[in-house]
């Protein structure tokens, strides 16, 4: 299953920008939901901060891959400037890690264990991968607030 | 399975920046691979361009979701400025779309079909989601070039 992790840097930041609340009045016969734009379950600082998108396919030789991937997530989460990470794989794998700035990304990249893992990845585990390092300009989120009733809600 | 799509805008751009080629000499007894940093199977223009990271969990009511998700990928791929998209879901879903600039992102967001899909998403399909709009500063890729032999390769 995909994993989500909130970094220590994220806990103290200001809340994720929340779009104007909105409600929906459904047509007759449909189940009613009141939905509001609310902060999601984790908090990012105000932009800018950074997202590193790592997209990959495995080679088929995954000996040690799972343990190392798990170790890397744990280790990354301890690094200064780490804000969070999401990762999902189903054939194609996408991992997006969030960092406060370029310096924290560089420091993590130079971490000895991370460097060894990346070298092993190229040598054994990955068929191909792409890395995109991007500066987050804006963000927003949504979380469902169910309000089920028989009457259309306001 | 995750899907990848190369946008029309990507085909004419310059090649993905390629790191300095490197080879690896394995220890005795291990299978040998020569690996080089090569362009991956799709091409992005030189940065900057944009990545939109959409991370979500479904509500459980997925009636129509699959068809609409597929339709949105096809439709997005026809929009001016579209560069590519990757999408994987396993409980958590991550979709990263790539765009030439903010204007193309805004135009896609205002597309009538896309707007309707987003509204339905909030009303029915999504438990929660996050959107991060980010400017790609740099990118690189790797693709394995297997060179299997009994002797360590140079």
From TrEMBL, chains A, B:
<dbReference type="Pfam" id="PF03992">
    <property type="entry name" value="ABM"/>
</dbReference>
<dbReference type="InterPro" id="IPR052936">
    <property type="entry name" value="Jasmonate_Hydroxylase-like"/>
</dbReference>
<feature type="domain" description="ABM">
    <location>
        <begin position="59"/>
        <end position="119"/>
    </location>
</feature>
<dbReference type="InterPro" id="IPR011008">
    <property type="entry name" value="Dimeric_a/b-barrel"/>
</dbReference>
<protein>
    <submittedName>
        <fullName>Putative enzyme involved in biosynthesis of extracellular polysaccharides</fullName>
    </submittedName>
</protein>
<dbReference type="InterPro" id="IPR007138">
    <property type="entry name" value="ABM_dom"/>
</dbReference>
């Amino acid at each position: 299953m995909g994993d989500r992790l909130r970094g220590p840097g994220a806990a103290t930041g200001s809340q994720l920008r929340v779009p104007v609340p909105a409600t929906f009045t459904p047509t007759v016969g449909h189940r009613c939901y009141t939905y509001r734009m609310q902060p999601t379950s984790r908090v990012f600082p105000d932009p800018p901060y950074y997202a590193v998108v790592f997209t990959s396919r495995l080679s088929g030789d995954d000996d040690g891959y799972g343990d190392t991937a798990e170790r890397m997530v744990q280790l990354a989460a301890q690094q200064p400037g780490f804000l969070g990470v999401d990762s999902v794989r189903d054939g194609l794998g996408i991992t997006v890690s969030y960092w406060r700035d370029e310096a924290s990304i560089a420091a993590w990249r130079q971490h000895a264990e991370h460097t060894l893992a990346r070298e092993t990845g190229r040598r054994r585990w990955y068929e191909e991968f792409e890395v995109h390092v991007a500066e987050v300009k804006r963000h927003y989120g949504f979380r469902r607030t169910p309000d089920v009733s028989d009457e259309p809600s306001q």
